[in-house]
Structure formats: structure tokens, C-alpha cells
Design goal:
Distance between the termini of chain A: 22 Å
Largest interface: A-B, 53 and 44 residues
Order of helices and strands of chain A: EEEHEEHEHHHHHHHHHEHEHEEHHEEHH
Distance between the termini of chain B: 29 Å
Number of strands of chain B: 12
Number of helices of chain B: 13
Mean pLDDT of chain A: 85
Radius of gyration of chain B: 26 Å
Order of helices and strands of chain B: EEEHEEHHHEHHHEHEHEEHHHEEH
Strand content of chain A: 5-15%
Helix content of chain A: 55-70%
Oligomer: heterodimer
Shape of chain A: flat
Strand order of the largest sheet of chain A: 6-7-8-3-9-10-12-11
Strand content of chain B: 15-25%
Mean pLDDT of chain B: 87
Structural class of chain B: alpha/beta
Chain lengths: 563, 382
């Protein structure tokens, strides 16, 4: 596993304001997402897995509060940066696939528009460049401000300490030194601010000039084309007209021949028809119909043939106009993503996600697609911006098995093709086994167990993971299911101790009193349960899990893998 | 799992076509097309298939939420609903045949160059009369049958009908938010003719206990319950009229993981206690395998394979069944790494020469195939 971290979440805590009070949805979640890996987050609904992913995307509901914690991505803390800067990350760098394709697509907008929308909005190249260049200056200002804040805090602490000791002399000297420093810092801030403003205009000017330079080339080309166009058209028109006239004559000839032949045949049949009697007539009627059909088909064929021939000749006016248009389009593409470019890219992405006939599909509405196709479109929307992290929030829960398998395969191939890191949220353990490199099991706003996919499935340590594994039947289950009794805790009043203790058959006294820390099982495998404490009694795995692990080890697939 | 040989439900050639538009725009969606199922007393019959394959429509037509286009549904020995599209077709066919026969006779008469034409003419007239009479009697009989079926469908025996109940997929959408749990559960009893308030209350309380809720819950509204409890209310509503047969239409798909197991366990217990027969509609194959005795696989309105569960999972024959089985993800990473999915391509079947039929390839194992395919499947079996 390449050790490069893509996303680092540290001790994230999120609450929601409600009429009843604060709902503690996420209570201290930490995990890393490495490059090119798939991290699956599993848990019941209400365990906070969606909230965590939404926090990474910065699309939490309005009543959400991030109490504590950091989300590091690309050297930035996503919980602290402002909305303006988030625009560069959301969708662009971190894409998201939502659960229900029916409600995440706009029913009255054509598919094409929905896919290109993001590209067109984010399509201004000048703006993007400007933002990238100005970022360090913004950061300098921000850092300076943060430093001032920390200085004030430090001073206050020191002052308080000294006050307790009663050392007035030192306080005054400290105060003097602090004021001096603060002034310097203030100056630095104002300087950074001035610098920022100055650089802003400078960079704007620079970008403007650069782009104008690029556009100039095209301007020149357009001018020359415009100047020479009229003469060229006048020169080439007679030639074109000649060719077309020739074709027209040919066409008329061909059609008259077909008509003649048909008439002859029909007359012939008619004559025979008059001279026969009884059932024979029916036969002739059939022949007549066949002849009519043949005539129709032949005419159609000839028509198509000539249409093709006509298409080869184009009026020179049209040709040059097209050339001019093309040049103008190319010029426009320097500045922004044009509609045409967006469409080309959208069709490419639609092909990538496996939508047949993307040209035709581009102009259709969501209701004209089946469930699986709709989910593909949602994926296409997420992929147009070419993100490097993809968050999939239960992308297949609303779909049935065969289509689910298709979508999962699609996400897998896209992950390899585009070097994506994926956070995959689901409650289906079968899907997890299929997709994930690492698994995080969440319960009541916490990660209770995290580890490699083999470790979680073959060596689970937390009772909740056991319960999850044994509660769903697989193709070999015969005995009664081990349902998890009760319901998840109300997060308005988060339970003391281990949140799962109430529903846990293995709960010990300490589980109700003290929250368990993370115990290390292996370098990559951690679990938060007191059962792993060295003083805890030995506990046997539930029978269903034991049997399942044993079965897995015995299955021929498992054996092949080991050898 | 005591199965007797007496089917409690017998579905014969059931068809459910939805029509829309007229003339050029006329569109017929064959949601269910020629499905025949026998369900025996005490068993759980699983029905799988992808979304849109008509499994829900089958269930809904059986319980008469739709009127069938064609085919007969027999429940506990009584016909509860019947469609008549095929009879109409038969009337058309009879007319057509008669017309053909008469025109043939006419041709014969005209082409013959016999001398005594009058005699021939007489003979011809007699024959035509005979044909017409026969046609008329046939048509009146068919019309009578149609009328009988219409009457059955419009006015079934309520006593029989109430022995059949349904559980719906989405417990939030299928419970009226303005009714208390007591009202919801008692509604069926009232419709079935129960008027005594005391009996109703007693029955409601009893059934609530059966499904693992408390009598105190009866006064509450559906929104005050969790997802699993809501599905229990739906189950209680079905159970209160003491049915013999329950159609469970994806009862756990909309539920949370940990709660799915609770509901399955509950259904399992009730089925053993009350001796219920269940038709279980779902798209999750692991759950179907766990819960059902026999499984029917549907694809595009047709039943493509029907077998006891172990047989179906051991010897899946129809390519669609095999593709479906290959798509099931299991919680086993090693297995998942090895798993290969095959796609089902319906164009591989060549039905241009001979139409497929549902045939028994092995006792209890039925498959949709024509004779050529059947021979191939038989080879695979050996």
C-alpha cells in the first residue's frame, strides 16, 4: 500500500441543532484515506457514516455544527477554509455519488445539461488560474492572522500564570514585549493585506495580457479568412453548381427508369388477372402486393443513395462559414469551456461509464432511463470534473443484484483507470467484501473497528462487527438468524461507555461505565472494545461467525488463494 | 415444513397486460405473461427477479389489486379471479374459421362444372347452415364463460378472500399516518364484518403480542415507531383476520440491516406457529435462499425456472438464473476476488422455430425451454 495519504480525518465531532437539543451524530472519528485505495464505511443507518462523508464534501445540513476535528486534504483543513476556496475542491477534486439516482437527478432537465452544468459553471480558465496563483497570498494573510490570535492567547496565559505568582514587575516587562510583538504582527498583517491587493491587480493584469496574446493569433486568422472568403466563394460556386446539376439529372433518369419498370410489371399482372378465375386470383393479388413492395423499396434505396451523393457536395458558402465558426470556437475555448467542448467531454464520459448511444441519450430526460442507467449518469456527473477522490454514498442500495454488480464493476474499473481513491459507504457486507481494501465499521457516531478487509472478515474483534456478520443470511445459512436486539441509541443522549453495550450479549460491567480506547490488533487493525483488554475474559466468537469463517477457509476459492 | 399435495393456491396461465394509448401509439406492456404456479399448504414460495420483471405485479394480481387480463387464480379450491382475453381471442378465431370454411365451399361450388347445379347448391346451403349454427353455439358458450368469469372477478367470496393477506414493501408508505395502530389493524376486521368493539380490541391486542409489540402501542401513530416496528404493524394488520396465505412483497428491502434479521426471524416463527403459507417476493437471493422452500425465477414477465431451493442453487439451468446467482455478493473477500459474473443475453435463445414452454426437467424442477434447449439442459444435468 502506498503510504501517501489523500485525506486525513482527525477526531471529527459533528452535532445537529434540533428542537429537542443537540444530536451528536459523529463523536470523534479518525481515519486516513490512502492514495488509490477503497475504504468502506459500514454501519446501520444513523451511525453517522453519511454525515462524515458529507462533512468531507462540505455539504452538511444548515443546522450542523462541526464541534471539533480536522479534515486534511491537499494541505488544507476542510473544516476551516471558507466557502470560496471550497468551490475549488467540492466536485472538482472530491466527487460524490449519491444514494438514490431518482432524487439526485433533476427530473425536468435534460441529462446532457445536468452533466455539462458543472463544467460550464467552473469553466472560466482565467478565473481558475487566478485563484490558483492568488492562493499562497491568501494563505500568507490567513497564517499571519492565526499567528496573532495564538500570540494573544499565549500572552493571556502567561499573564495569568504570573498573576497567580504575584510577579508584577515581570508582568509589565512581558506586557511591553508583547505589545511590541503585536505591533510588528499587526504591521505584518497589513502588509500581507496590501501585498494581496497589489498582487491581485498584478495577477489579473498578467493573466489578461497572456490570454489576449493567445487570442490575437486567432483574431489574425479570422481576419484573413474573412477577407479572402468572398472571392473564394465566388470562384468555387459555379463548379459546385455544375456538379449538383449533373447529379440532379442522373437522379431524374434513375427514377423514371424505376417507374417505367414498375408500370410494366403492374400492367402485366393486371392483364393476367382479367383472364383468370377463382382461387388463382388470390395468388395474383399477392404478386401485385409483392410488386408494389419491391417498387417502394427500390425507390427508397435510390433516394438514400442520392442523398449520400448530394451530401458529398457542399455549397462553398457553407464550407467557409463552417471554417469561420470553427475558428471562433477555438478562440472561445482559450478563455472558457464552451458549450460544444462541454458536450464533447460529456459524451466521452458517458461512453466511459457505459451508456450506449450517448449522442441520443444526451438529449433525454432522467425518466427515460432505467435505474442502472440513471445511476451511471450520476457517476458521469461526478466524473466530468476529473476528481481524484470519489465518495460513494450507498450507490447501489436502491438497485437490484444484477445492476448492482454492473455498477460495482464500473466503479472498480474507473478507479483503476483514473487513479481514484474511493470512500465507499454501504451497509451490505457482501458489497464491502467485493469492493474494499480497508473497512471501517461505524456505530453510534464512532468507528468501532477499522482494518484491512481480510482482517475484518476473517478476524473480527468487535462484538458489533460479529453481530453485523451474523445477522444477515448468506447462501449457506440454515439456522435461526442472530438478530441484533433493540435499536440504535438515540443520539440526543449519547450513551455513557460503549454505545453498543445495551445490545451486546458480551457486554461487561465496564462497558456501561467507561468508553473503550482503541486496542491494537495488528499494524493496520484496531478495535474499540474492552474485550481486547488484557484483563478481559476470553470470549468465544458467536457460532454463526465461527462457522462462516471456517466455511470461508474451507471453500476451494479460499484454499487456492493461500497456496 | 409440512407440505401436503393439495395446493392452496393455483395460478394457471396468468397474464397481466397494461395497455395505454390508441391506434398508432397503442402500447401493451406484458407485465406478467403466462405464469403458472402451484403453492402448497405450509410452504414458503420465493419469487425472485430483477426490478421490473413483474414479480410484484404477479403478487398484486393474485390478491386482486389488479384484474387479470387472462388466466385463472384458484385459492383454496375456489376460483377467485379470472381473465378472459384468451376467450375473446377464441371467439374471434371461431368466426374466422367459419368464414374460411364457407369461402372454401363457395370456391368449390363455383369451380365445379357438374350439370345438376341445383342439387349442389342445395347441398352447399345445408353445409353453410350447419357451420353457422355450430359457430353460434360455440360463441354463445364462450360468451357465457366470459360473463361467468367477469362475475367471479367482480364479486368474489369474501370469506375466502380474507384468508389471503398482503405485506407491503415500504412500511412508511403503506401505513396511514392519520390512523392509530389500533385503527389500522382493526380496519380489516371491520371490513370483514366484525362489529363488536370488545372482540376487535381483544383481537388487536392479541395480534400485537404475536408480532412482538405491546398492547399499549395500539394507541400510537405509525410515526412513533422505528422501521422494524412499523413492518411489524404491517404484519399484524395482515395477521389479524387469521389468514392462511400471505403475500409478502419485499417486506425487508426497505429496512435497516440489523432490523432485517429481526423481521425475518419473526416471519419464520409465525409461519411455524400459525402454519402460514407465504409467497415471498424479493430480489435478495441470500434472503430468499434462507427463507423459502421453493423458488421461482422471473424474467420479463415469464417464469423461467422453478425448483426447490437446494436444487435451484445446486443445479441452476436457465442462463438467467445462472447470471443472477453469479451476481450475488457474499461477505467473503477471498470469494469475492474470485467471483466472475456472467451477463445474461436473451438473444442467445432461438425461439423462432419453436416457442418455449415451462417443462419439468426433473421432478419438481421446471424450466422454460423449447425441445432443443431441453435436450441440452438434460445433458448438463447428467
Amino acid at each position: 500500500m502506498p503510504a501517501k495519504k489523500k485525506i486525513e480525518v482527525n477526531d471529527l465531532r459533528i452535532s445537529f441543532w434540533t428542537n429537542q437539543g443537540m444530536v451528536r451524530a459523529v463523536r470523534g472519528v479518525s481515519f486516513d484515506l490512502f492514495e488509490q485505495e477503497t475504504l468502506a464505511i459500514v454501519g446501520e443507518s444513523g451511525s453517522g457514516k453519511s454525515v462524515t462523508s458529507r462533512a468531507i464534501m462540505g455539504i452538511l445540513a444548515g443546522n450542523a455544527v462541526i464541534d471539533e476535528g480536522e479534515i486534511w486534504y491537499d494541505g488544507q483543513d476542510l473544516t476551516k477554509i471558507n466557502e470560496e476556496l471550497f468551490h475549488n475542491i467540492r466536485g472538482d477534486r472530491i466527487g460524490m455519488i449519491f444514494q438514490d439516482p431518482m432524487s439526485s437527478l433533476n427530473p425536468i432537465m435534460r441529462i446532457g445539461k445536468q452533466i455539462t452544468e458543472g463544467m460550464l459553471i467552473n469553466g472560466d480558465h482565467r478565473k481558475k488560474e487566478f485563484k490558483a496563483l492568488i492562493r499562497e497570498h491568501y494563505n500568507a494573510l490567513y497564517d499571519a492572522k492565526v499567528k496573532r490570535k495564538s500570540m494573544i492567547k499565549e500572552f493571556k496565559e502567561q499573564k495569568k500564570e504570573l498573576k497567580e505568582q504575584g510577579d508584577t514587575e515581570k508582568i509589565t516587562s512581558l506586557k511591553e514585549a508583547f505589545e511590541k510583538d503585536l505591533d510588528a504582527q499587526k504591521k505584518a498583517i497589513s502588509e500581507a493585506r496590501k501585498n494581496l491587493a497589489k498582487r491581485k491587480t498584478e495577477i489579473k493584469q498578467e493573466i489578461k495580457e497572456r490570454y489576449e496574446q493567445k487570442a490575437k493569433e486567432y483574431d489574425k486568422k479570422i481576419e484573413t479568412l474573412k477577407a479572402s472568403m468572398k472571392d473564394k466563394i465566388a470562384e468555387e460556386t459555379p463548379q459546385y453548381k455544375n456538379a449538383v446539376d449533373q447529379l440532379k439529372k442522373e437522379k431524374a433518369k434513375r427514377f423514371s427508369r424505376i417507374d417505367k419498370e414498375h408500370k410494366q410489371n403492374m400492367d402485366d399482372i393486371e392483364r393476367r388477372f382479367q383472364s383468370t378465375k377463382g382461387t388463382q386470383k388470390e395468388k395474383l393479388a399477392k404478386e401485385k402486393r409483392a410488386e408494389k413492395n419491391r417498387y417502394k423499396n427500390e425507390k427508397l434505396k435510390a433516394k438514400e443513395e442520392f442523398a449520400d451523393k448530394f451530401a458529398q457536395h457542399q455549397h462553398p458558402r457553407k464550407v467557409y462559414k463552417q471554417q469561420l465558426e470553427n475558428l471562433k470556437e477555438e478562440k472561445a475555448r482559450i478563455f472558457k469551456v464552451t458549450k460544444k467542448e462541454a458536450k464533447e467531454r460529456a459524451i466521452k464520459v458517458m461512453e466511459d461509464v457505459g451508456i450506449p448511444e450517448p449522442d441520443k441519450r444526451f438529449r433525454q430526460y432522467p425518466f427515460q432511463f432505467s435505474g442502472g442507467m440513471r445511476q451511471r449518469i450520476v457517476i458521469a456527473v461526478a466524473l466530468t470534473a476529473d476528481p481524484d477522490v470519489l465518495i460513494c454514498d450507498e450507490p447501489t442500495t436502491a438497485l437490484d443484484v444484477t445492476i448492482q454488480a454492473q455498477i460495482l464493476e464500473l466503479i472498480k474499473t474507473l478507479k483503476v483507470d483514473r487513479n481514484l481513491s474511493v470512500i465507499f459507504i454501504t451497509h451490505d457486507l457482501g458489497v464491502v467484501a467485493n469492493m474494499a481494501d480497508r473497512v471501517a465499521v461505524m456505530y453510534a457516531g464512532k468507528i468501532v473497528e477499522i482494518g484491512g478487509v481480510d482482517e475484518i472478515f476473517y478476524n473480527p474483534k468487535h462484538p458489533y462487527t460479529w453481530a453485523l456478520l451474523s445477522s444477515m443470511p448468506d447462501l449457506n445459512t440454515e439456522e435461526r438468524l442472530q438478530a441484533i436486539p433493540g435499536t440504535p441509541p438515540n443520539m440526543l443522549f449519547p450513551p455513557k461507555g460503549d454505545a453498543f453495550a445495551d445490545r451486546n450479549a458480551y457486554a461487561m460491567k465496564i462497558d456501561f461505565e467507561k468508553e473503550p480506547p482503541y486496542f491494537k490488533v495488528s499494524d493496520t487493525h484496531y478495535a474499540a472494545t474492552w474485550l481486547l483488554h488484557k484483563d478481559a475474559p476470553e470470549v468465544e466468537l458467536p457460532e454463526a461467525v465461527q462457522r462462516r469463517i471456517q466455511h470461508m477457509a474451507e471453500s476451494p476459492e479460499g484454499k487456492e488463494d493461500e497456496s | 415444513m409440512s407440505t401436503t399435495n393439495e395446493p392452496i393456491l393455483r395460478v394457471k396461465n396468468l397474464k397481466q397486460h397494461f395497455k395505454s394509448g390508441f391506434g398508432k401509439n397503442k402500447l401493451v406492456v406484458k407485465a406478467v405473461d403466462d405464469v403458472s404456479i402451484d403453492i402448497y399448504k405450509g410452504e414458503v414460495f420465493g419469487l425472485v427477479g430483477e426490478s421490473g420483471c413483474g414479480k410484484t405485479t404477479t403478487g398484486r394480481t393474485i390478491i386482486k389489486l389488479y384484474e387479470p387480463t387472462d388466466g385463472i387464480v384458484e385459492f383454496m379450491g375456489e376460483t377467485i379471479s379470472a381473465g378472459y382475453e384468451s376467450l375473446k381471442e377464441m371467439i374471434r378465431q371461431t368466426r374466422h374459421d367459419a368464414r374460411d370454411m364457407i369461402s372454401d365451399l363457395k370456391d368449390e361450388l363455383e369451380s365445379s362444372e357438374d350439370k345438376d347445379k341445383d342439387k349442389l347448391k342445395q347441398e352447399y346451403d345445408e353445409k353453410v347452415k350447419e357451420i353457422k349454427e355450430k359457430k353460434d353455439t360455440q360463441i354463445t358458450e364462450l360468451r357465457k364463460e366470459i360473463r361467468r368469469r367477469q362475475q367471479i372477478t367482480a364479486d368474489p367470496n369474501m370469506k375466502t378472500m380474507k384468508r389471503m393477506q398482503m405485506i407491503f414493501q415500504d412500511p412508511i408508505a403503506s401505513l396511514n399516518p392519520r390512523m392509530t395502530v389500533r385503527e389500522i389493524i382493526a380496519e380489516g376486521l371491520r371490513i370483514a364484518g366484525e362489529k363488536d368493539a370488545k372482540t376487535i380490541t381483544k383481537k388487536v391486542n392479541d395480534v400485537l403480542e404475536t408480532v412482538g409489540l405491546l398492547p399499549e402501542h395500539a394507541g400510537r401513530y405509525p410515526h412513533e415507531f422505528s422501521g422494524g416496528q412499523r413492518q411489524r404493524i404491517g404484519l399484524a394488520r395482515a395477521l389479524v383476520v387469521a389468514p392462511e396465505f400471505i403475500i409478502a412483497d419485499e417486506p425487508i428491502s426497505a429496512l435497516d440491516v440489523s432490523i432485517q434479521a429481526q423481521v425475518i426471524n419473526l416471519l419464520n416463527e409465525l409461519r411455524q406457529e400459525l402454519g402460514l403459507t407465504i409467497m415471498f417476493i424479493a430480489h435478495d437471493l441470500s434472503v430468499i435462499k434462507y427463507f423459502s422452500d421453493r423458488i421461482g425465477v422471473m424474467y420479463f414477465g415469464k417464469l423461467v425456472e422453478l425448483a426447490p431451493k437446494d436444487e435451484l442453487f445446486k443445479n441452476p439451468l436457465h442462463p438467467y438464473t445462472r447470471s443472477l446467482l453469479s451476481a450475488v455478493p457474499l461477505p467473503d473477500p477471498n470469494y469475492e476476488k474470485k467471483r466472475k459474473r456472467f451477463a445474461y443475453d436473451p438473444s442467445t435463445h432461438d425461439y423462432s422455430k419453436e416457442a418455449p414452454e415451462l417443462v419439468e426437467i426433473k421432478p419438481g424442477h421446471l424450466i422454460l425451454a423449447n425441445s432443443a434447449e431441453l435436450a441440452e439442459y438434460k445433458k448438463v444435468l447428467k
